Task: inverse folding
């Protein structure tokens, strides 16, 4: 059996989608025309696509591997054509697709009517009626099977789809692929990430994908606010609109541990799909990046940058990049972004109370809402976390499976003991401050919390702590 896809490795299902699209089609009608155009366009968009391209032997049962491929696909594109119903194999696939739609949450069907009218499919007339007359003769001992095929045809033909006249195939490819892409992107935004959709679309709107300029976008905020998560979802959802892409995770820590040359190698390896790139020194890496990146429209994410030197060695100048490229930088230091003169800076908002309770509930209880008796304590927990997703997830994991008395004990302890794991996140931000900024931060935290800002600035100015700059850097 020839399995043709965009590079995904098929395995038994583990609860996750293995493919994004399964193509159901009659090969002799579509293989060398519409199907080829559609498949190439899906692969170009980096949409993981399964099609079985083997010429099948008449009368052979559908292989179990093919049934598992259908179960492991998020979407099915069903291409009805003149001779579609003559294939018992196509009809078996279709019945399985409908079964998945009925039993598996999230499986979506996109019907395409290629050189055939939906009513012909729905009512099984014309070539479909002729095909079923033969099926009823061949399967007269198993008419239940034929009925299952008929019911599946009716169900799918009633779904809104595309009607494509023969000879106009190329005009419909883009809208079909765009519909699949947008649906897939929308689903990805909402999978287990509370409040992520609006925040991601705000960044996406800043990117202005489609324009031919080179744009740099900054995502700035305190540790634990969700900068990396937002950048990751943007990258996963929209990188298939670029010729190549790279996500450099945790630049700060990786640069300290492995060096900037390692990050340069990773960037070039991701973009050019080469695994043997070796850079002798950082300056040579800069020259190589400048020389090679201009050939492809790329999406580059630099996550958790904390100094200008990292930017200068990885993505400093717009003229390094091909027109249409986009660079996204996440950092805790807004000044870095302003120095680099990025096009736009996005500061994620803390989760609202409702979003925070939902995230806590999903983490603790696996449901959208707290269990009975836990609502009041859940409100106390999210109030303590101040809308920071990382803090909410940590506290939720700690409280998962605990009784109400244990929750109460935990809340009492939180009043006097800040969890070490959360403290470590904020410690990174504090350690990155200059000494005068650290001193300013500690003065405010210990003595001036809640005081009038002008009065505090006056006192700190007397102490020669340059408060106007230090306060801006400290918060």
Result:
């Amino acid at each position: 059996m020839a399995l043709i896809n965009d590079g995904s490795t098929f395995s038994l299902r583990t609860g996750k989608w293995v493919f994004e699209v399964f193509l159901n089609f009659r090969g002799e009608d579509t293989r060398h025309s519409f199907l080829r155009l559609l498949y190439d366009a899906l692969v170009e968009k980096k949409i993981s696509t399964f099609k079985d391209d083997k010429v099948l032997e008449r009368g052979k049962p559908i292989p179990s591997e093919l049934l598992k491929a259908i179960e492991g696909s998020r979407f099915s594109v069903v291409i009805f054509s003149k001779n579609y119903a003559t294939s018992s194999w196509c009809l078996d696939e279709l019945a399985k697709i409908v079964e998945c739609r009925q039993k598996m949450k999230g499986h979506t069907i996109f019907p395409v009517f290629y050189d055939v009218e939906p009513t012909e499919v729905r009512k099984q007339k014309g070539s479909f009626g002729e095909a079923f007359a033969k099926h009823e003769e061949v399967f007269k001992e198993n008419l239940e099977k034929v009925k299952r095929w008929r019911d599946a045809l009716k169900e799918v033909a009633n779904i809104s789809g595309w009607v494509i006249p023969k000879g106009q195939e190329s005009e419909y490819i883009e809208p079909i692929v765009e519909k699949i892409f947008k649906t897939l992107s929308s689903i990805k935004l909402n999978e287990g990430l509370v409040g992520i959709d609006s925040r991601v679309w705000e960044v996406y709107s800043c990117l202005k994908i489609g324009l031919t300029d080179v744009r740099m976008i900054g995502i700035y905020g305190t540790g634990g606010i969700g900068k990396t998560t937002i950048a990751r979802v943007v990258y996963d959802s929209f990188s298939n609109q670029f010729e190549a892409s790279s996500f450099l995770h945790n630049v700060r820590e990786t640069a300290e541990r492995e060096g900037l040359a390692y990050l340069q190698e990773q960037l070039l390896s991701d973009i050019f799909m080469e695994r043997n790139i070796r850079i002798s020194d950082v300056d040579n890496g800069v020259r190589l990046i400048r020389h090679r990146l201009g050939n492809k429209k790329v999406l580059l994410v630099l996550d958790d940058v904390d100094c200008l030197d990292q930017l200068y060695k990885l993505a400093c100048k717009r003229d390094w990049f091909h027109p249409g490229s986009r660079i996204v930088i996440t950092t805790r230091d807004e000044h870095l972004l302003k120095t680099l003169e990025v096009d736009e800076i996005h500061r994620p908002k803390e989760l609202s109370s409702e979003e925070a309770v939902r995230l806590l509930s999903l983490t603790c209880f696996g449901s959208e809402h707290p269990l009975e008796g836990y609502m009041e304590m859940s409100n106390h927990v999210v109030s303590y976390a101040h809308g920071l997703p990382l803090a909410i997830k940590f506290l939720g994991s700690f409280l998962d499976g605990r009784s109400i008395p244990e929750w109460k004990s935990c809340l009492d302890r939180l009043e006097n003991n800040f969890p070490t794991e959360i403290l470590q996140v904020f410690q990174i931000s504090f350690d990155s401050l200059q000494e005068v900024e650290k001193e300013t931060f500690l003065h405010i935290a210990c003595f001036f919390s809640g005081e009038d800002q002008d009065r505090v600035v006056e006192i700190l100015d007397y102490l020669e702590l340059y408060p106007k700059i230090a306060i801006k850097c400290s918060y």
Notes: Residues 1-15 have pLDDT under 50 and may be disordered. The radius of gyration is 28 Å.
